[in-house]
Specification:
Layout (H helix, E strand, L loop, with lengths): L4 H5 L6 E2 L7 E2 L2 E7 L5 E6 L4 E2 L2 E4 L2 E2 L2 E8 L1 E5 L5 E3 L4 E4 L5 E5 L5 E7 L2 E2 L2 E4 L5 H5 L3
Antiparallel strand pairs: 1-3, 2-5, 3-4, 4-13, 6-15, 7-14, 8-11, 8-13, 9-10, 9-12
Length: about 140
């Protein structure tokens, strides 16, 4: 049985292939801007097994990111911490300067709202891909 776009991406829609950031992802992701004025809110959808590289949201003050899972099953992991399972309704606050990654479980589509926390002099630093052997041991 094929999943519908709504089942994959939740109520905010699949959007377009995330080609602008494809170099920082393993697998295919999709991006659908929800709000772009005042505060950035983006629906990001990951095909099964897709995840982004380790990365850091920098800011001189304020900043960071909130992930709010809207559909499917995925993972978030901060460097040096255990992975956290993400299911619909679960939220994670990622403080600025924390090295982390997030993405889909191997066997599930996954969508989350990525909410940019306002900050001064914010930027993203993209790092290495998530180690395949570490990812593959996740349930």
């Amino acid at each position: 049985m094929s999943m519908t776009e709504l089942e994959k991406a939740g109520i905010f829609g699949l959007g377009q292939p995330n080609d602008g950031f494809a170099q920082f992802f393993i697998g295919q992701s999709y991006l659908n801007p929800v709000v772009t004025q005042g505060i950035g809110i983006f629906n990001v959808t990951f095909e099964p097994g897709c995840r982004n590289n380790w990365h850091i949201h920098h800011a001189k003050s304020g900043g960071g990111q909130i992930l709010l899972c809207t559909s499917g099953r995925g993972w978030y992991q901060a460097e040096g911490e255990e992975p956290v399972s993400l299911t619909p309704g679960k939220a994670v606050y990622i403080p600025p300067e924390v090295t982390h990654w997030h993405g889909a479980a191997r066997d599930s589509w996954f969508a989350h709202l990525a909410i940019e926390v306002p900050g001064k002099e914010g930027s993203n630093e993209w790092l290495e891909p998530v180690d395949e052997s570490q990812y593959n041991i996740l349930p």
